[in-house]
Amino acid sequence: MESNKYITVAYKLYTIEDGERELIEEAKADRPFQFISGLGTTLESFENQIVNLKKEDTFNFTIASEDAYGEFDNDHVIDLPKHIFEIEGKFDVEKVREGNVVPLMDTEGRRLNGMVVEVKNDVVVVDMNHPLAGADLNFIGKVVENRPATAEEIQGMINLMASEGCNCGCDSCGDNCDDHDCGGYCH
Predict the structure, then answer these.
(1) Residue 74 and which of 4, 51, 115, 186 are 20 to 30 A apart at CA?
(2) Per-residue b or e along 115-124, where b marks 16 or more CB atoms closer than 10 Å to that residue's CB
């Protein structure tokens, strides 16, 4: 695979689960999804499909769940002690409620996001699976740009990756980035 290509694509992303297809994300041509090939910022299976296309080429491909975000794993739905969600001794009822994504940190200091499944008396049930785990992904779109990346673009992407944030104003993607125009960096 060719590295260090600046690529932007406009696409619609559909999930396919149990034969049902659902539109879940769209990157329009005026705010395309952008990445630099070879840096590991996108799914390898996605990048492999796009990297050799030229500007204006269209695409329509499906990535099986095992080549995307894996199968849903029930072992990744965990009970966490409710006290870890306390701020100044009080449980954070605003952010820690069913359906919300909460930022967490593992024992090695890595940031993770989990979706709150249920709040019980003494534990919070959190789903640590990727939101798209278990789904086949169908991408339909067009290449907006595909050219060698400049040194500044490469450095900018490295800086973005090092900050573990995104460029959409939601800080660490603990927020719902669907409310921001992040061009896909958060996903």
Answers:
(1) 186
(2) bbeebeeeeb
Indicate the domain borders of the chain. 5-69+134-179, 74-127
pLDDT of residue 72: 93
Say if strands 58-63 and 111-119 run parallel, antiparallel, or are unpaired: unpaired
pLDDT bracket for residue 105 (50, 70, 90): confident
Q: Encoding tokens for residue 84?
A: 């870890």
Provide the token pair at 29: 């041509």
* CATH assignment, 5-69+134-179: 3.10.50.40
Q: Cα 84 from chain centroid? A: 25
* Per-residue pLDDT at 9 exceeds 60: yes
- The rounded distance, in Å, linking the Cα atoms of 5 and 3 is 6
